[in-house]
Design a protein that fits this description.
Strand order of the largest sheet: 1-4-2-3
CATH superfamily of one domain: OmpA-like domain
CATH topology of one domain: 60s Ribosomal Protein L30, Chain: A
Strand content: 5-15%
CATH architecture of one domain: 2-Layer Sandwich
Low-confidence stretches: 164-171
Order of helices and strands: HEHEHEHEH
Helix content: 25-40%
Radius of gyration: 42 Å
Structural class: alpha+beta
Largest sheet: 4 strands, mixed
Shape: elongated
Number of helices: 5
């Protein structure tokens, strides 16, 4: 008898569990369909960064000197930063002198000045094969006059971007 009671209790428990959760019913509300994905706007490529231009500049020297001043070194550093971003661009350095001294002496001094700037730029990392250093001597004055104000403007290196044809002239 005891086994019948246990069996009856088990049947009742199973029946109670199967009915504990109501069976799923069909919903009267329609199920919303997923919206089709909206078309993705095409991604436009970012504009190409503008190439940094190498800005022509001049550096100045003391009388009868080719030594680079701290100010000259700072200007050359700026030029170096520009040139590093334009490895396709050659540089031209033109050494100049004031009118005092002989033509030969001033050509040599102008070359020492141009070479000093070139050597500095090469020393901080520019490729020497992309730099042309020449001397104009006293042949291309920036300022005319026979006084210190004019002479100080003429004791200079002019540094500029160069085209391939120009840069091949004299390396």
């Amino acid at each position: 008898m005891k086994s019948i009671r246990i069996l009856a209790a088990a049947v009742l428990a199973a029946a109670a569990c199967s009915h504990a959760q109501p069976p799923p019913t069909a919903s009267a509300e329609p199920v919303a369909e997923a919206a089709p994905p909206s078309p993705v706007a095409p991604v436009e490529p970012a504009p190409a960064p503008r190439a940094v231009e190498i800005v022509a500049t001049s550096v100045y020297f003391a009388f009868d000197s080719s030594e680079l001043s701290p100010e000259t070194r700072a200007t050359l550093q700026t030029l170096f930063d520009q040139a590093r971003q334009r490895p396709d661009q050659d540089l031209r350095i033109e050494g100049n002198c004031d009118e005092r001294g002989t033509r030969e002496y001033n050509l040599a001094l102008g070359q020492r000045r141009a070479d000093a700037a070139k050597n500095y730029l090469v020393g901080i990392g520019l490729d020497a094969s992309h730099i042309t250093a020449i001397s104009n001597g006293k042949e291309r004055p920036r300022a005319l006059g026979d006084d210190e104000a004019a002479w100080s403007q003429n004791r200079r290196d002019d540094l500029m971007p160069a085209t391939g044809a120009v840069s091949q002239m004299s390396r």
